[in-house]
């Protein structure tokens, strides 16, 4: 099979990027001509993507603006083709995608209309990085995607294993794919834990490092931790809040409770309150940081 065939390979197209626009002293007619060409290329891309087998399977759920974001990611060389869905959620779908040099990446595509934007807005509250975002649903969701990207960067910098963030374009996040050729990495509840005591220590250290870097995951449990090639990886950091958030303490307590309860069921001597005390007493959260 040709590399990428199973992904519904998108052919390369020549586009005009932002820099080229700035360099061109375009007359109206020339600008029109370029705009028409871009429109044509875009609609061809859309048609090609819609015709791929995988896309038919997923039901063709992307709207025009999402197609445009995917098209930009193709033009910018981050992805070449969209593959099969890994997960279909209420707020976002995660797909495999083919990147240059036969690499597989994961893309998370947020649905602007279906997202629970009120809840998202509550999580953005108190975060100095998103102070001016109140407005409409679209702005909140787009800020959310950037926030997930920024949180991944910050977590990575803090020494927490997360999927490597690669790019963000409108409502689409491109990140490292976790898993192998046969399947995406399983979540903790589905994985063979090996030694649960060691796994618990690793997760405890991750929560502490996150807190030390001024972040609280906010939805941590066995469902947002995956095991990739024997390594524990924290995922879904979109809702992670900074320690400035009015509910950060409550979120941290809940994260600790979820994680400790899971490991206690696995036979580990773990307790939510003890875990919380460990995290806050060992950590020294950095205040007032800008985006990572
Ligand atoms: N980088 C990745 N590589 C491989 N699989 C991934 C990756 N990121 C997410 N997944 C898979 O997709 C699922 C959903 O991802 P994630 O939790 O980030 O999205 P979500 O829409 O917030 O999901 P949910 O609503 O279930 O919390 C994960 O449980 C995991 O199985």
From TrEMBL:
Similarity remark: Belongs to the protein kinase superfamily. RIO-type Ser/Thr kinase family.
Keyword Transmembrane tagged: no
InterPro entries: Kinase-like_dom_sf, Prot_kinase_dom, RIO-type_Ser/Thr_kinase, RIO1_kinase, RIO_dom, RIO_kinase, RIO_kinase_CS, Tyr_kinase_AS
Protein keywords: ATP-binding, Kinase, Magnesium, Metal-binding, Nucleotide-binding, Serine/threonine-protein kinase, Transferase
Highest taxon of the lineage: Archaea
Reaction(s) catalysed (UniProt annotation): L-threonyl-[protein] + ATP = O-phospho-L-threonyl-[protein] + ADP + H(+); L-seryl-[protein] + ATP = O-phospho-L-seryl-[protein] + ADP + H(+)
Occurrences of domain Protein kinase (ranges): 80-292
Known EC number: 2.7.11.1
Species: Halospeciosus flavus
Xref: SMART domains: RIO
PANTHER family from the UniProt entry: SERINE/THREONINE-PROTEIN KINASE RIO1
Designated name of the protein: non-specific serine/threonine protein kinase
Single GO term (MF): protein serine/threonine kinase activity
Signal peptide annotation: none
Alphabetized PROSITE patterns for the sequence: PROTEIN_KINASE_DOM (PS50011), PROTEIN_KINASE_TYR (PS00109), RIO1 (PS01245)
């Amino acid at each position: 099979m040709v590399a990428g065939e199973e992904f519904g390979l998108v052919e390369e197209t020549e586009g005009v990027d932002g820099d080229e626009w700035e360099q061109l002293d375009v007359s109206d007619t020339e600008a029109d001509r370029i705009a028409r060409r871009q429109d044509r290329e875009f609609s061809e891309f859309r048609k090609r993507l819609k015709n791929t087998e995988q896309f038919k399977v997923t039901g063709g759920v992307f709207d025009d603006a999402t197609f445009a974001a995917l098209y930009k990611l193709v033009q910018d060389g981050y992805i070449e083709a969209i593959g099969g869905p890994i997960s279909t959620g209420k707020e976002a779908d995660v797909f495999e995608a083919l990147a240059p040099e036969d690499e597989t990446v994961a893309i998370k595509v947020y649905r602007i209309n279906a997202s629970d934007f009120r809840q998202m807005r509550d999580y953005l509250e108190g975060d100095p990085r998103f102070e001016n975002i109140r407005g409409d649903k679209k702005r909140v969701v787009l800020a959310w995607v950037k926030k997930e990207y920024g949180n991944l960067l910050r977590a990575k910098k803090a020494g927490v294993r997360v999927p490597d963030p690669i790019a963000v374009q409108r409502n689409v996040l491109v990140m490292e794919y976790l898993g192998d050729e046969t399947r995406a990495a399983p979540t903790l509840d589905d994985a063979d834990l090996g030694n649960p005591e060691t796994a618990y220590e690793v997760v405890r250290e991750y929560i502490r490092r996150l807190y030390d870097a001024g972040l609280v995951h906010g939805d941590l449990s066995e469902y947002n931790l995956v095991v990739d090639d024997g390594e524990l990886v924290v995922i879904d950091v979109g809702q992670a809040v900074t320690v400035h958030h009015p509910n950060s303490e409550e979120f941290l307590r809940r994260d600790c409770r979820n994680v400790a309860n899971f490991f206690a069921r696995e036979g580990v001597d773990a307790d939510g309150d003890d875990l919380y005390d460990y995290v806050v007493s060992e950590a020294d959260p950095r205040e007032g940081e800008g985006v990572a």
